[in-house]
Design goal:
53% of the residues lie in helices and 0% in strands. The two termini are 39 Å apart. The longest helix is centred in the N-terminal third of the chain and has 19 residues. By secondary structure, the protein is an all-alpha fold. The radius of gyration is 20 Å and the shape is globular. The protein contains 15 helices and no strands. The C terminus is likely disordered.
């Protein structure tokens, strides 16, 4: 079978396992994952449709919690070709932002991505403009994206550093992207945040009254207050105490508007117009 083009890949994706004892989900592309090492040399690296298909397979392997397949796909692509995939999909951004949906599985996926050497500091700029989640990750690194909620940041931090990442080196590379620097972060204040012993808040989920999407989260105002206090050089202990006190009050006074609508100033009419967005945005 010629697997160098999109048609060959689609044949493998749609081929189902004939073993009656197979325990894979019905749509699991087992034939493709089995064939990946064999077709590696035939794989065309200069066709956008191929890149987009591989990007989609990465997303499937993350959502289906197939960490072995994810590792094989990342290894197949390699660091050089990885930049072409980022046009369509940024796996580290995706896993980080969806961390709170299935914490154990997302942590394993992030660990796979880190161990295979993917860039933890990739800035989602115009290079990722074809990404279906571009408007949500735009001008963010995985770190700055994870910092939007305390729970997301907590688990991102818990995975990154046990993998052997040095904090000082990590912060240096992160600040080189400029996104956090523009918000006022410095090496010392960012290190304070990473070393802060805090209890994350699991924000309630609801259907947004503006965009009408279910499973949304409100802006975590207590967490944003903590971040601002750290940027301003406040004593971390005092800032943490204020965060813990405010978190209990603020999470009880939600108005049903998701963080994205609030940040964009989207009204009811605009929310209705956004209904064409991918349904996978529901978890965002």
């Amino acid at each position: 079978m010629n697997c160098s083009g999109l048609t060959g890949i689609r044949r493998l994706v749609t081929k189902r396992c004939s073993n009656t004892n197979c325990h894979h989900p019905p749509l699991h592309p087992a034939a493709l994952y089995w064939a990946l090492p064999l077709i590696k040399t035939q794989f065309s690296r200069c066709i956008d449709s191929i890149d987009r298909t591989v990007a989609h397979l990465w997303q499937i392997s993350i959502l289906e919690e197939d960490h072995e397949a994810l590792e094989n796909l990342v290894t197949l692509v390699g660091n050089t070709h990885y930049q072409r995939i980022l046009k369509w999909f940024s796996p580290v951004h995706f896993v980080t932002w969806n961390m709170s949906q299935n914490i154990s599985a997302r942590r394993k996926s992030l660990r796979v991505l880190i161990n295979t050497g993917l860039d933890l500091h990739y800035l989602a700029d115009e290079r990722s403009s074809a990404n279906q989640y571009y408007k949500l990750i735009r001008d963010n690194t995985p770190t700055s994206l994870g910092m939007r909620f305390s729970l997301t940041f907590f688990h991102f931090r818990e995975v990154v550093f046990p993998c052997g990442t040095q904090l000082s080196t990590f912060i240096e590379h992160e600040l080189q992207q400029g996104q956090l620097v523009s918000k006022g972060w410095t090496p010392s204040t960012l290190q304070t945040l990473f070393e802060l012993d805090f209890r994350p808040v699991e924000m309630p989920r609801f259907t947004c009254t503006e965009c009408k999407y279910p499973n949304r989260r409100s802006t975590e105002k207590a967490w944003e207050m903590l971040l601002k206090n750290l940027i301003d050089g406040r004593d971390p202990i005092c800032a943490l105490k204020e965060f813990e006190e405010a978190a209990e009050v603020i999470t009880e006074d939600l108005k049903g508007i998701c963080w994205y609508c609030e940040s964009q100033g989207i009204g009811s009419k605009q929310g209705e117009d956004s209904a064409g967005d991918s349904p996978l945005l529901l978890s965002w």
